[in-house]
Amino acid sequence: MGVIGLGTMGAGIAEVLARSGVSVVAVEIDDDGVHRGRGHLEHSTERAVTGGKLDAGGRSALLDRIRYTTSLAELSDVDLVIEAIPENLEAKSDVFAQLDKITGPDTIFVSNTSSLSITEIGVHTARPGKVVGMHFFNPAPILKLVEIVRTVVTEPEVVADVVAFAERLGKTPVVIGDRAGFIANALLFGYLNHAVRMYEQRYATREDLDAAMRFGCGYPMGPLALLDLIGLDTAYEILDTMYHQSRNRLHAPAPLLKQMITAGLLGRKTGRGFYTYDEPDSPTVTDAVTKSTVDTVPPREVRKVGVVGTGTMATGIVEVFAKRGYEVILRARSAEKAAASVARVKKSLDKAVVKGKLSEEDAAAALGRISPAVEFEELADVDLVVEAVAEDLAVKQAVFAALDDVVKPGAVLATTTSSLPVIECAAATSRPSDVVGVHFFNPAPVMKLVEVVSTIATAPDVIATVDAVCAAVGKHPVHCGDRAGFIVNALLFPYLNDAVKMLEAHYAEADDIDTAMKVGCGLPMGPFELLDVVGLDVSLAIQRTLYNEFREEGFAPAPLLEHLVTAGRLGRKTGKGFKDYSAR
């Protein structure tokens, strides 16, 4: 096999090939390039030995399988050649045109491009049927996903050979058509770009944006930290390429990206991007955490908490507060509903005891702190009341109007809405400065994230109070303004909607898209698995809310999502969604 280009990616690919027993001819443009590439390989394999993933003999054998050169002519007898030079169409096309004259007619040409058209590269050869994309993910020796990109003229047996080759390397291949960004980047970079726009608009701090996606979605990294790792220049090139093919405004690189690149702030590789690092290529962040205006404001005292509602979220919030020592009043519409909710809390506490996460004494004490109630007047002396009723604005407004009549002055009034405007709830009261959004994530006893949503009227000490309460109950608060989707849903659901559009266009199968995002990006669930868990009806409602607020064409719900909801295929809860669960 041949590998052209020994940057981080090319050297990683050469290591993967040599590790599988393949003899590699590695080509760089000059001796300095060869020296750097050899250094990448020696450093990476030394780390593998130190980590116990390779022994000294295996490392020596691996390195012996790689021959370095600065001449493309030495690729004359290879069976397959992988090009891994920088993302420049003209440069890649020129390399392939030269290879066409050097190699045998059956040699397969592979480009590792992450965003350029394989078709446009292949037409510069006399063998476009033997040109294919093979997009490895960085670091290539570790990440399993490989996107195999076929063009309209790629020979089927070439695709089959490359898929078998990827499997021989221990990789997980997915086969897709030739479209900007392929699967993973097409879905990932729209989400990353959206996060940059949020930061650019000062909607949320870099720490809160990143924490929201880590704690709220289980992502291994937040979007801005990930951009620093990828490199802002690389991200810009991928987004720009995607935009020129899709003309989707959501792919147009955020202006802040260009400004940072011009200033030399490229991310970890230069030591500074969205964060500042102790040195280039270091993961250690050294700059101070972004300060909030509420950091110096004293919070109000909270000893007694009221929770309005009896659903899963309400009972979860009751459990969270009761376990942490707060006296909690659970207000329901009837004594029967209140009793049933308390029973559900007891069942959850009992499970925690069985699992060894809670002692019997602590469980009993927590249950003893919960008082059921039916009348709003029983909430008169609470310091904080959390509304957790149905996602219906009229219902929530009626609750806030009732609370306004009975709850003592100075109490904080919070709504757990995930999508409705908090200011609309505040407007139903005579004390809008005391109203705040406190969006817990389900299941509330488990999930650490709480989105703290301030309206234009929310008082600073109300935010400080909620922050202090979150700390007291072991939650991680992130702050944002009062607009549709807050942070998590505003970033998550356009990405999910893009995945549906990709499936709708017959570009890739649902299972392949899920695999690409889980294996290639380290996400805990693929988009279709997640949509089926959330519920397609809930997902559609959130997507419609985002579209109605922002009026972005790219936020318009995918027709396929609308059709599935109309057909009653709502996901796991109905047995069928994007996947069929009826036999499980």
TrEMBL record:
Oxidoreductase is among the record's keywords: yes
E.C. code: 1.1.1.157
Keyword set, alphabetical order: Oxidoreductase
UniProt enzyme class: oxidoreductase
Residue span, 3-hydroxyacyl-CoA dehydrogenase NAD binding domain: 2-178, 304-482
Pathway info: Lipid metabolism; butanoate metabolism
Keyword Oxidoreductase listed: yes
Residue ranges of every copy of the 3-hydroxyacyl-CoA dehydrogenase C-terminal domain listed in the record: 181-277, 485-581
One Pfam family recorded for the sequence: 3HCDH
GO molecular function annotations of the record: 3-hydroxybutyryl-CoA dehydrogenase activity
NCBIfam families registered for this protein in UniProt: PRK07819.1
PANTHER family per UniProt: 3-HYDROXYACYL-COA DEHYDROGENASE FAMILY PROTEIN, 3-HYDROXYBUTYRYL-COA DEHYDROGENASE
Family: Belongs to the 3-hydroxyacyl-CoA dehydrogenase family.
Descriptive protein name: 3-hydroxybutyryl-CoA dehydrogenase
